[in-house]
Amino acid sequence: MSTPVRVRFAPSPTGFLHVGGARTALFNWLWARHTGGTLVLRIEDTDAQRSTDEMIQGILDGLEWLGIDWDEGPFHQSQRGARHREAADRLVESGSAYPCFCSVEMLAAEREAAIARKESYVYSGRCRGLDPAEAARRREGGEPSTVRFAVPAGETSWEDVVHGHTAFENRTIGDFIILRSDGAPIYNLAVTVDDLDMRITHVVRGDDHISNTPKQILLYGALGVEPPVFAHVPLILGPDKSKLSKRHGAVAVTAYREQGFLSAAFVNFLALLGWSPGDDREVMTRAELIEAFTLERITGKSAVFDVEKLEWLNGQHLSRLSGAEVAAIAKPLFVHARIADEAELARRAAWFEDLMALVKTRSRTLHDLVEQGRPFFPGPVEYQPDAVEKFWKDAALADSALAVAEAYVAGEEQWGDLEAMEAGLRALAEESGVPAGKVMQAMRVALTGQRVSPGIFETMTAMGPDVVRDRLAAARAWLAGRAASQAGA
Ligand code: GLU
Q: Are 42 and 12 in contact (CB under 8 A)?
């Protein structure tokens, strides 16, 4: 095959870029980049009431976050009405389409009769038999009319890259409208004319468009051109196997940026919704996805949107970044959370990179980084109730453990040598008769407020002796206060 691949992403800007649309955009982008082909962006804004500039901007923002770039466009379908009407005229001239003068009431009556007979409704074709010269005269005389495509007898089929041989009986399609009475093109005509003009070779889109495809193939035939290759991608379902909805988080993809996901991880996640590389790889960079992507590997089964998988992938991508890379991403989040200002982070840049390297392995999202990183900055920590419950339940024991910790910190001279620090603590704990494990657990809560943290000696080293001393003192005071209030109660 020597024809260069030309694909398109053709969103209707009647909503934000959601997960399904983003996945369609991504598959087209991956196929274009894999083949060295061209991706065209076409905004299908023919629904003037529902398409707003805000929605268009939202889609562009979403694509930008995902790193999906395009080579041609954005073209606006609304500006191509003349081309669509021209094609409709050509189809009328060649006898493949005809003006229809049926009134709304007549069509409603036809529909009701079909329902009464328990048949699915298709237009009766009443106006198809009109004499063309007579029909043209009525049209020119200003009588309101739509234009319908004259669906021939037989069957329309194609070899779908995903679903294989797919066929529709033409009589189930019925003569469909291609031009409204106000001259506005209907979706199937506009898409076909645009795909043709833009020399699209592969149409990759959601399964929800399968029933449009035979109509578009019929239009291609009547316009005398070969249709492109079609690949219909199965729908994305929620974890409960129902259609993905807002309830499942089917919101603007940029909401995932706000929730602390990395663009590379989100792209990786989207790519695996209905596609697989054919080996057991799951964590893949954009470059690896481009390298491995083919339309043939799109699966025919619907894909399930699993947030836990997304979180896991995000953690994997995070842990593969260097401390410096994570620091660059995390910096604005720390500033935003008012944990530190730009100046402080700039002054302690190397320390902050080490800190990010330390906490990234236990973090799934960027918010986890912030929460795990927070206690390493000076200031009071908040003791998480689950941590208190688990490690400070016995206040007397916790206090004696923290007393050992204070004594240990006061005498520690090998700050930063993790093994020596551990040996020193264990020796002191043994002398004091408090199990070393208890000392470390009680310290973890005192230093971080949390149940889990990086290793206690790494944590101490990253915090530095001053912060550690302050935290231990504050924890003992807090425990004493709690004991007093319990005694008083
Ligand atoms: N504009 C259509 C939509 O957003 C897609 C058209 C197509 O891909 O053919 O659903």
A: no
* Residue to mutate (ligand 1; options 8, 43, 44, 192; most atoms within 8 A of CB): 44
Whether the Cβ atoms of residue 184 and residue 88 lie closer than 8 Å to each other: no
pLDDT band of residue 191 (cuts 50, 70, 90) is: very high
Residue 228 beta carbon below 6 angstroms from any ligand 1 atom: no
Q: Cα torsion at 13, 14, 19, 24 (round to 10°)?
A: -50
β-pair partners for 72: 40
Which two structure tokens, joined as six digits, stand for 265? Answer: 């991880």
Distance of CA 277 to the CA centre of its chain: 19
- β partners of residue 166: 158
Class at the top of the CATH hierarchy for domain 71-233? alpha beta
What was the pLDDT predicted at 48?
79
Tell me the pTM: 0.89
CA 121 – ligand 1 centroid, Å: 24
Contact 264, 19 (CB under 8 A): no
CATH 3.20.190.10 holds for 385-488: no
